[in-house]
Design goal:
Chain lengths: 192, 263
């Protein structure tokens, strides 16, 4: 009996001590893993933040074309008084209007978009812009493009049987070129 | 077992744990509802209450001033999938009388060989929208504009319901063996063209899109070209111009010939 209850000796006692030591190490390892994951999430969340939208704004999807900021003639890029650019677009079955967005590089840009019918997705390849366009609500996203170039902007939310044909383009041009374009027109697009 | 009460402030474990939980809740509320929103300059918050309301998700109507007004007439029809889907015998009867003046081009049965659209069996919402757009000037046609100019809203609804009630008559050019062109069944995803059938009826119907079967090829081609060039722009928010602009002349021909041969 003594040999069974004495933990430091005997076959059972030794096994228990080893098990406890290993368990402590695994516990420490899992805490480290959890810590690394939390730090990664925090770093990515802060460094490449896509903040949840600060304001909930509504817009009636059936009357977008009648009045308000999403009428056809107001879509596209607008140069604001403070030098920033506001881009307005709508998603509908099965295209984005405008089909091609033109924006300046290295400039604060606000994308404002909504849907005219069902839920669509707005994703700009090569950036962290990725949001849903929900009918009834305005999606508002801040973005800054580092350098000129072209990005594709597919609908990334299944929106119906023609979904695969729905995508747009984003053309990033340098600031002077954009300002020259904005001098003659109030709303800019690159639809040919 | 201790006889001490568990849920009592005298129990230090209870009071400390409840205290910590409440403190976390208050701190997160202050941080999430006030501090973080106020840190975002682009939200343009007007004060603490505004910050709390916006963070809590109180919806507000989008109010962006200074919208550029359109330089041309756009359609003012509010299109919904439910629009004019209910049969109304009285309305159809009135429509039948009114439609007599349409017969010279659109045929007494809503079908004609005059290269004007066949209206028999057309979705009522479509006929109504086009009449309304002719009336407001969003769509212009030398023949149709004067006809629509004097119609009341009810008259347009009646005519639309009447034509929707008429049975579709297959044209003399029906050829069910014609293989549908790729653009109709699969579209051209690389060029931002969804399949025609995803809106125009064979696969799915989008509110406001006409049934194209049996329409004159000349008419379909002319409309696609007008959409592509921007001569016709009564499609709400460019939904058809976006598609037509990307189509090749050959595709337009194929589509026109295919739909003409459909029932």
């Amino acid at each position: 009996m003594t040999s069974e209850t004495d933990h430091s000796h005997g076959p059972h006692g030794l096994g228990e001590a080893v098990a406890a030591r290993i368990e402590r190490r695994w516990a420490a390892l899992s805490i480290v893993i959890v810590g690394v994951l939390v730090c990664m999430a925090a770093f990515i969340g802060i460094h490449q933040a896509t903040m949840p939208q600060g304001r909930v704004e509504t817009a009636d999807p059936t009357t977008l074309h009648l009045s308000g900021e999403f009428v056809e003639s107001n879509l596209g890029s607008a140069l604001e008084a403070d030098g920033s650019v506001t881009v307005r677009a709508i998603g509908q079955q099965y295209s984005f209007t405008p089909q091609c967005l033109v924006v300046p590089a290295d400039t604060p840009i606000t994308i404002r978009a909504t849907s005219a019918d069902v839920v669509h997705g707005l994703l700009i390849e090569g950036t962290n812009i990725n949001t849903m366009l929900v009918p009834g609500y305005v999606s508002d996203l801040p973005i800054r493009f580092k350098s000129p170039g072209e990005h594709v902007m597919p609908c990334q939310e299944f929106c119906g049987i023609g979904h695969q044909g729905m995508w747009g383009k984003v053309q990033v041009v340098d600031q002077t070129a954009f300002r020259n374009m904005a001098a003659s027109k109030r709303r800019l697009t690159c639809v040919d | 077992m201790s006889e001490e009460k568990l849920y009592s402030l005298r129990n230090p474990w209870f009071s400390i744990s409840v205290g910590i939980t409440v403190a976390i809740a208050v701190l997160s509320a202050v941080a999430g509802l006030i501090w973080f929103p106020l840190l975002q300059p682009n939200l343009k918050l007007s004060g603490i209450w505004d910050a709390i309301c916006s963070a809590a998700g109180v919806p507000g109507l989008s109010t962006q001033a200074g919208a550029v007004p359109p330089a041309f007439k756009t359609s003012n029809v509010v299109m919904t999938p439910e629009m004019l889907t209910r049969q109304d015998q009285v309305s159809i009867g009135r429509g039948a009388t009114l439609a007599q003046r349409c017969a010279i081009c659109h045929g007494p049965q809503g079908v004609s060989d005059a290269n004007s659209p066949n209206l028999a069996g057309q979705y009522a919402a479509v006929t109504y929208k086009e009449l309304n757009d002719f009336k407001t000037g969003a769509r212009v046609n030398v023949v149709m504009t004067p006809f629509a100019a004097n119609m009341t809203d009810q008259e347009m609804r009646d005519v639309a319901l009447y034509y929707a009630y008429l049975p579709r008559v297959p044209s003399s050019l029906v050829n069910p063996n014609l293989t549908p062109p790729a653009i109709v069944v699969t579209g051209a995803p690389m060029r931002n063209i969804p399949p025609c059938g995803s809106c125009h009826g064979e696969i799915d119907v989008k509110a406001g899109s006409p049934w194209l079967g049996g329409q004159s090829a000349v008419y379909i081609k002319a409309q696609l070209q007008a959409f592509a060039s921007g001569a016709r722009r009564n499609d709400i928010s460019e939904q058809m111009r976006n598609v037509a602009r990307q189509m090749t002349a050959e595709e337009i021909d194929q589509v026109a010939r295919y739909y003409e041969a459909q029932p």
